[in-house]
């Protein structure tokens, strides 16, 4: 057996951020711009990373892209030796960047030979994961 020495934190687990949209109708929640850095609870993510770095466990929120709300499900996660943080907006927040010892930006093989498009990635996430369609 191999020891699992890493944990992966995805920024998407920290939607919605500054404003809790749960009290609004689903149609109104669907209009929110979830691709803006302010839509993510980055402060909570920073707090979780700091806790993991100190060896403490965290309680990770879960988010439902269909309803645009956090769910009641909480995932408890133990600290590991390596913490991988992923998300297209993680490098936009200075305090979050400061928590990262190594920063890597990856361009996939399909993106080689053309300018990488954040819009392409967001569109893919919206259509496949968030059950949103492009107009």
Describe the structure.
This protein has 135 residues and is an alpha+beta fold. It has one domain: Rossmann fold, CATH 3.40.50.300. It is built from four helices and four strands. The chain has helices at residues 26-30, 42-53, 94-99, 118-128, and strands spanning 6-10, 58-64, 69-77, 82-86. The strands form two sheets. Strands 1-4 form a two-stranded parallel ribbon. The longest helix has 12 residues, at 42-53. The radius of gyration is 16 Å and the shape is globular. The termini are far apart.
In summary, what is this structure?
The protein has 135 residues and is an alpha+beta fold.
Q: What is the mean predicted local confidence, pLDDT?
A: 75
The CATH topology comes to Rossmann fold
Number of domains: 1
**CATH 2nd-level architecture:** 3-Layer(aba) Sandwich
List segments where confidence is low: pLDDT < 50 over at least 5 consecutive residues. Answer: none
CATH class: Alpha Beta
Number of strands: 4
Proportion of beta-strand residues:
15-25%
Give the count of helical stretches. 4
Shape: globular
**Strand/helix succession:** EHHEEEHH
Helix content: 25-40%
């Amino acid at each position: 057996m191999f020891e699992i020495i890493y944990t992966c934190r995805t920024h998407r687990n920290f939607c919605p951020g500054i404003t809790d949209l749960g009290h609004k109708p689903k149609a109104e929640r669907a209009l929110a711009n979830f691709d803006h850095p302010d839509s993510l609870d980055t402060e909570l993510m920073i707090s979780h990373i700091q806790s993991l770095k100190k060896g403490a466990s965290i309680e990770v929120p879960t988010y439902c892209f269909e309803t645009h709300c956090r769910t009641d499900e909480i995932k408890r996660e133990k600290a590991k030796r390596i913490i991988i943080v992923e998300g297209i907006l993680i490098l936009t927040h200075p305090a979050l960047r400061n928590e990262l010892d190594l920063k890597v930006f990856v361009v996939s093989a399909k993106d080689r030979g053309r300018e990488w498009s954040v819009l392409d990635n967001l569109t893919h996430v919206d259509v496949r994961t968030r059950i949103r369609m492009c107009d």
